[in-house]
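pls design
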């Protein structure tokens, strides 16, 4: 009874002393952790356990001194605390070794090419490893696309440049002198210059998109007007190819968009469809609202379809899908669809393609505005 009364009377003081000493130990621990912030995680885990054990031990000693416990009881309490501290240090040591070992395993995996995320890591390290694996995969895909782009552009530049050089040398050396041939050479050189200029413009536009430097001047526009302007611009190409170009648009489909940029994206889809549609077939444009409440622009052609394994690649830089859509001499460097995708995504929209009937259907979806 005397012991219990003593504890109850001295409890506020015991709490104050233990709290004060614990705070001092905690501050010292934080200071040590800051000093060792660049060291191994194992060392910091050991510091955390030492701080916890020290704070507990200091509190127990303070209680013992306050309660004036002597003899075997005091030794027993201190022994229990010491054993608990040693157990905590042992567990911390095992945990620290595992964390350090798994970290080194991750570091070793990063040095391998190609990188593959190791399995069985702690959750946080596994998340980092999976993120790195995805980033490396994207980097490899981009690098492959860049190499393919360089190969395509090199080929597409070399061929017209060689022809232009030959024609220019023929004109310069007087190999051709009759007016008809000279005029034909001049016309061909002009055509190739325009084609090369268009290719350079596409490369510049694509570099702006990839660099995040595409600046949009958004305004409220109607998709019906955009479709009408696109049809008017593509009609001469369709007529020359012998392709029928049709359009169907709902009058009131308002979106917030840059007319020039979005018109270029839609125009790229239409021109691409015309180039790969045989004569006497139809390319159809439609504008409306889909079931999800999004503004939808679609371009349907008669290209014969795209192989299923290529459907996910059609928007890659320089991809031209030769297996089903043989490129023509005026087909460009395969940048039109990549540019269209960049422009649509800059408008917070999505672009996709599906096989449909005698060909495929490209779809642009954009948020509606009230």
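designed seq:
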């Amino acid at each position: 009874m005397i012991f219990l009364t003593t504890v109850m009377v001295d409890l506020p003081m015991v709490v104050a002393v233990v709290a004060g000493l614990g705070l001092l130990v905690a501050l010292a621990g934080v200071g040590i952790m800051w000093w060792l912030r660049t060291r191994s995680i194992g060392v910091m885990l050991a510091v955390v356990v030492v701080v916890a054990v020290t704070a507990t031990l200091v509190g127990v000693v303070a209680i013992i001194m306050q309660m004036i416990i002597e003899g075997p009881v005091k030794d027993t309490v201190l022994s229990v605390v010491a054993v608990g501290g040693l157990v905590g240090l042992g567990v911390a040591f095992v945990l620290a070794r595992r964390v350090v070992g798994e970290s080194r395993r991750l570091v070793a995996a990063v040095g391998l090419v190609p990188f593959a995320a190791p399995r069985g890591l702690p959750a946080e390290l596994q998340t980092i490893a999976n993120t790195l694996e995805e980033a490396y995969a994207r980097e490899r895909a981009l690098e492959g696309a860049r190499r393919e782009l360089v190969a395509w552009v090199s080929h597409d530049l070399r061929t017209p440049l060689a022809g232009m050089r030959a024609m220019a040398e023929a004109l310069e050396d007087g190999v051709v002198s009759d007016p008809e041939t000279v005029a034909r050479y001049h016309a061909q050189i002009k055509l190739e210059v325009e084609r090369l200029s268009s290719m350079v413009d596409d490369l510049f536009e694509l570099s702006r998109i990839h660099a995040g430097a595409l600046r949009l001047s958004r305004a409220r526009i109607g998709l019906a007007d955009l479709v009408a302007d696109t049809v008017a611009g593509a009609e001469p190409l369709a007529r020359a190819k012998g392709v029928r170009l049709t359009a169907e648009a709902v009058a009131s489909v308002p979106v917030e968009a840059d007319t020039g940029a979005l018109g270029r994206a839609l125009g790229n889809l239409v021109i691409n469809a015309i180039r790969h549609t045989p004569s006497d077939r139809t390319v159809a444009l439609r504008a409306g609202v889909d079931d999800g409440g999004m503004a939808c622009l679609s371009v349907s052609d008669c290209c014969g379809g795209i192989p299923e394994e290529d459907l996910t690649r059609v928007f890659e830089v320089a991809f031209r899908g030769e297996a089903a859509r043989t490129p023509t001499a005026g087909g460009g460097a395969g940048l039109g669809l990549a540019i269209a995708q960049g422009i649509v995504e800059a408008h917070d929209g999505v672009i996709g393609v599906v096989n449909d009937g005698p060909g495929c259907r490209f779809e642009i979806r954009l948020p509606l505005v009230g």
